[in-house]
Task: structure prediction
Amino acid sequence: MIKASTALVVMILGLQAAPAFARTDRWSADTSGDQAAVTDCSDCGDDVGVLVSCQGAGKTAKLSVPFLALEAEPDTARETASLSFTVGSDSFELPASFDAWGMVGFVPVAALARSSDIAKAIRRGHAMAVELDGKKIEFSLKGSASALAAFEERCGWGDD
Result:
């Protein structure tokens, strides 16, 4: 009996230590054309790392980074946060605010202009790191050029 319970404990600990899944980032544009996102599946729900959403023709897109969401509401007295991006050897800083996304938390968001240097880097890069308040995440940019091309065709985003 002791051997069986020990084996069960070892098995449970082994399952807890093993990753639930291996994340495969890929950029895709959704069918409605108002979003381009890095996801690990075609229907990820809240499991989106980076989301670029259309704000209307000619307007800058909204870049959201749910993987860097804050659990608590940011201090309203805090100056605008800054999102740091690294794509290859290029670094970028974008001023950010926060949107409440329910159970996901307070998601940092920034304006993304179509012809900005960061948008160009995302299209041509292989990987991107994003940092906020010392927390850093990395994404593959595989498929970003074609996803953003489809996004541009459907959204008509701009630089305002």
